[in-house]
Amino acid sequence: MSTTNHITTKWVGGMAFESNNPSGLDLRIDAGPESGGEGSGYRPKALMLSALAGCSGLDVASLIKKMKLKVDDFQIETIANLTDEHPKYYDAVTVEYHFHGKELDEKKLQRAVDLSVEKYCGVMEMFRQFAKLEIKTIFHS
Question: Name one Pfam family in it (predicted).
Fold first, then answer.
């Protein structure tokens, strides 16, 4: 049986929208001043990059916990190239996983990243349909 997500996005005036989420938290979306908005919310395309990093990050965090790995800090940098022609979309995306710590098990952390990228992260799979992905894992001691 398939799962259906149903999101309602309501115009709240100007260029702003309020979008609900299964978490129960609402999200504001707005265009920047250069596009007639007030910049009072998230930009849709940038939100896609947050979704990508968040999806994969949840996988990796879960695996860090499961594998009982020591990590002081972990962040994901997502750098995307936007096409010049309309409709503008991301055609190439670099995802950098940065791990910080004095006792990093690099082999197991790389395995956690690989599992997310290749097997678990559905948003990563969606991005694969339209963008060239480059994955980098960087360890900082």
Answer: OsmC
